[in-house]
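Handoff note, outgoing to incoming analyst
You'll be picking up this chain. Sequence as last confirmed:
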Amino acid sequence: MLQDRITSIFFFLLKTGLWKDSNGESNLFPLTNREWNEIFKTSIAQTVECLIFDGIQKLKVENQPPKALLLNWAVRVEKHAQRNEVMNATILKLHSLFEVEHNIPMTLLKGQGIAKCYDNPLRRICGDIDLFFKNKSDYNQAFSIINKRGLEINPMAGFSAEYKFDGFEVEHHEKMIDIHNPFVFKTLNKIRKDEENKSTFLNISGSSIRLPSAVETIIQANAHILKHLLSFGIGIRQLCDSARIYSFYHEELKNTDLKSIYSKLGIKKWIDMLHQLLVKYLGLDESFLPYPLESKINSDWMMQDILVAGNFGFHNENFKQRESELKGERADKKRRIWQSFVKYVRVTPSEAIWFPLMQYYSRIKK
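Most recent structure output, in case you need it:
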């Protein structure tokens, strides 16, 4: 079937673009124009068109897309690179505003902090700017500063709020890690305490922007993937993030008992499935995993869900038309979240149960 072939080609190019070492030429090539258009469409839906483009660059010229499509692709890649550079400048402004001018420590989550784990950080498509403040006082003071600038602040579920700054969505978070089971908050607090003096940093124009520690980074990234799988879906870009973090921070992570941490957080069985996807579909070397791969479970269904949903579930063909009519509002919210619950309660019961409850509680509290 066309879709089976397209999927195989897509992952071949993704692996080739994600890692320095080329996987060599595949017998899947050459492609028809229709197949190249499908690959282009899929890469956009999964927000990995820059990585797929890098994979294409490693093909023989005769196996590459038609010139018109390749040019269009190259223009998109360059625009993403430019947006990354503009985002870096905006992060620097926020750093100056909070840390330099008002002495409010901020930690940059996800985004550009994870981009540094890639061979070329500009190839990771950027989204929002996520900032974490270590206590309620700093969190409130930061919003007081934003209020004085006349910017509209919108509360969000999950003890967060957002506003627009220089054209970017900026989110402030009271919680660093998206784990919702309140019975493991003690474990999360211990992780924070243990990692408090192990921050990593992102250098932007000579300024050091604080990032979470390596341990916090991988737990936060993986928990973020799970959070979105429990609602409307996630894109392959976020799986690429997890793979690159494991690779980039391998030395820092290898002496940490992540297996035990995942177990205490109630997400180990799901993490085992995630690890399978990272190795099987994204080409992560098993040696970069924090513990041996669990081979006796099937996670293909989860990848199928990811391929269907696209980036944060916005490319699900079953709902695209209705969501277009709803101007971005989610269609069939309750049914979709219920379907996610049914799937994941078998894998991570504590998070599947507590996720909707804590989302509701945080909205009421706001």
